[in-house]
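Re: weekly structure request thread

Next one in the queue (189 aa):
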Amino acid sequence: MLKRFLQSLLALLGTAALLLAVVAWQYFIGHNFRTVEKGAFYGSRQMSGAALERTIRKYDIKTVINLRGENTDQDWYREETAACRRAGVAHISFGWSKNRLPPPESLARFVMLIEEGKKPFLAHCEGGTHRTGVAAAVYLLLRGESPDSARGQFGPMFKDAPIGELVTLYEQSDLPFRQWVLEAYPAIY
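Done, posted below.
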């Protein structure tokens, strides 16, 4: 009986360790990279300049969307903008926070970028979870996907970050997402 219990416990611990290893690889080694729509929209965590250049080449990225804001005094920002210049791609910054909803004018500017900017896009924040998840959700809502489908971009580490309330607020509306962003969202922000 004890032997069977120990075997079961070891199997359970082994499975948990394997799952943890997969999550750690995806997050740290894999840059928390995800394909939202192949050839159109990708999301990730912050990358080094070299990793960003490799990703730009591999996925033919035309626009890098930095959701951490303009941080000209930070090494990561200078490295990122230099990598984009070398690769000849656009670099656009939005100062979003996981702790609050995006300001209406910033969200409207993001919507315009998605509609008019050069694809494919690569959106990123520091960890690739909260702000990037919401950016990916916004992209899908603009494509006519359901709020539940858009929430699928939040991932298991998202939890209940305030920025995610954006989808819940939209869900209460009957308007198309673009119209909601431009007309209804500023009043409820």
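Confidence is low (pLDDT under 50) at residues 16-30. The longest strand covers residues 34-37.
Next request, please.
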